């Protein structure tokens, strides 16, 4: 597994609060960095927390699948990449792929999150506004990208 060239990414460093009892990066720290990177992507594409609040819409994750390949320790630098792995044609449902690499480019972990856009008032999934759908469609695609069936209620 090589670092993707077509992705949205940021470099982070393993901090004290990221360390678990065994002395390596705790699993929830990976989830937190993945979430942070997703928020960065959306914010850079016009969807800040304030914008989501105005629209009364937000992302909801139904399933996370995490794989670990190599340990990461205190003060290690690592890069997190974001790509879209799957998207419904109406952009209601999505699967996001976060891949983590150390400074040498070796894979540390991979997180795939399957979700949808949630109407915060109705508490049901919904098709996102056109600008948000466009941002999702322009997100760099994983090599394994696939289109999901348009209508599958959750």
What does this structure look like?
This is Thioesterase family protein. By secondary structure, the protein is of the alpha+beta class. It has a single domain, classed as Thiol Ester Dehydrase, Chain A (Roll), CATH 3.10.129.10. 22% of the residues lie in helices and 41% in strands. A hairpin with a 4-residue loop joins strand 4 (93-102) and strand 5 (107-119).
CATH superfamily: Hotdog Thioesterase
> How many domains is the backbone divided into?
1
SS-based structural class? alpha+beta
- How big a fraction of the residues is strand? 35-45%
Q: From the alpha carbons, calculate the radius of gyration and give it in angstroms.
A: 16 Å
Quick one: how many beta strands?
7
| Shape descriptor | globular
At the first level of CATH, the class is Alpha Beta
- CATH architecture annotation: Roll
Count every helix, treating DSSP H or I runs of 4 or more residues as helices: 3
Biggest beta sheet attributes: 7 strands, mixed
Helix and strand succession? EHHEEEEEHE
Low-confidence stretches: none
* Percent of residues in helices: 10-25%
CATH fold category name: Thiol Ester Dehydrase, Chain A
GO molecular function: fatty acyl-CoA hydrolase activity
Organism: Acanthopleuribacter pedis
Protein name: Thioesterase family protein
Pfam families: 4HBT_2 (PF13279)
């Amino acid at each position: 597994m090589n670092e993707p060239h077509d992705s949205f990414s940021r470099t982070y460093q393993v901090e004290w609060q990221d360390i678990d009892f065994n002395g390596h990066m705790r699993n929830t720290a990976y989830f937190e960095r993945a979430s942070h990177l997703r928020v960065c992507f959306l914010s850079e594409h016009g969807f800040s927390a304030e914008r989501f609040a105005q629209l009364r819409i937000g992302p909801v994750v139904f399933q996370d699948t995490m794989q670990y390949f190599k340990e990461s320790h205190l003060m290690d630098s690592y890069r997190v990449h974001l790509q879209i792995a799957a998207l419904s044609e109406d952009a209601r449902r999505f699967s996001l792929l976060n891949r983590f690499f150390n400074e040498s480019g070796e894979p540390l972990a991979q997180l795939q999150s399957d979700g949808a856009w949630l109407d915060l008032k109705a508490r049901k999934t919904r098709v996102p506004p056109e600008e948000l759908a466009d941002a999702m469609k322009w997100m760099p695609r994983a090599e394994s990208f696939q289109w999901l069936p348009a209508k599958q209620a959750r």
